[in-house]
Amino acid sequence: MNLDLSGKTAMVCGSTQGIGKASAIELALLGANVVLVARNEESLKTAMKDLDVSRGQKHNFLVADFQQSNQLRDKLDSFVATQGAIHILVNNTGGPPSGLIQNAKVDEFLQAFNNHLVCNHILVQALIEGMKDAKYGRVINIISTSVKIPLKNLGVSNTIRAAVANWSKTLANEVASYGITVNNVLPGATLTGRLSAIIENKSKNTGESLNEIKNEMESEIPLGRFAEPSEVANAVAFLASPAASYITGINVPVDGGRTGNL
After folding, report:
1. Half-sphere exposure of 176 (CA within 13 A, CB side)
2. Strand-strand pairing, 33-38 and 9-13
3. 9-188+228-253 CATH fold
4. E strands of 40-83, at which residues?
5. Which residues contact 254 (CB under 8 A, 6 or more apart)?
6. 192 in helix, strand or coil?
7. Alpha carbon separation from 133 to 11, 28, 87 (Å, rounded)
8. In which residue ranges of the chain is CATH 3.40.50.720 found?
9. Whole-model pTM above 0.85?
10. Contact 15, 24 (CB under 8 A)
11. Alpha-carbon distance 185 to 194, whole Å?
């Protein structure tokens, strides 16, 4: 099985913590040069120190705030012009706050749509020509199992994630002839800051203790525990590799069996 990413460059968004950082680490271990993307420069510099360089990989970072999407394309164009093509794009950004959809404000939908779908689209448009020229491209979107079954108390997230999933499938069909694959990784409950925030918010709203909510959530998972970010990152790394060349347009749940359908 060819998992070697030597000579390939991967851009990983939201890569200073959680699933994004874990994905960057795994891609570097497979030999890729990694470009970290986030809005905090100091955090990017710190995260870059954790990336493997044993094969001579050269890592870099790009400071970008997805809430300012009008500036993102210019930054990407400038980066590619000076640093070269990107072969692997991992679209990943923090999810919208939890809450009932009936209580959601219009601005919450607009902001989430911008941060997730619009920025994903800008990234792809800026990088796709380099993938075509290289005859190698991997677009991997970190979404959520909610694209299969909506999750309770995540109204805005359920809505926007579904839009991203359908955008991804459409894109996969359009670019397949260029040797570019587009897939979605759907994390279940994973030990990240977002999971902690969801548990804390539910505790505040219900009066249940953090431990009670944690135990309740884990009881819904057949494997009986939350995922480590590295376990989600393993799926990302495989889909980025040459071994996954004939896999495109699919959703890959990494959820310990929690999702109630195939």
Report:
1. 14
2. parallel
3. Rossmann fold (3.40.50)
4. 60-63
5. 185, 186, 187, 188, 227, 231, 232, 235
6. coil
7. 17, 22, 10
8. 9-188+228-253
9. yes
10. yes
11. 17
How many angstroms separate the CA atoms of 178 and 193, rounded? 37
What's the number of CA atoms in the CB half-sphere (13 Å) around residue 92? 31
Least confident piece of the model among 22-31, 91-100, 177-186: 91-100
What distances in angstroms separate CA 132 from CA 58, 175, 190, one per listed residue?
A: 22, 9, 34
Q: Which residues pair with 61 in a beta bridge?
A: 36
Give the pLDDT confidence of 64-107 residue by residue, as tens digits: 999 888 899 999 999 999 999 999 999 999 889 889 999 999 99
Task: Extract the runs of DSSP E, i.e. beta strands, from 83-240.
Answer: 88-91, 137-142, 180-187
3-state secondary structure of 248: coil
The single residue listed with the structure tokens 């968004």 is 13
* Distance (Å, whole) CA 132 – CA 135: 5
Closest CA to 61 of 87, 84, 34, 80: 34
* 131-171 tens-digit pLDDT: 999 999 999 999 999 999 999 989 999 999 999 999 999 99
Token pair recorded at residue 8: 């390939």
For the beta carbon of residue 107, count every other beta carbon within 10 angstroms: 8
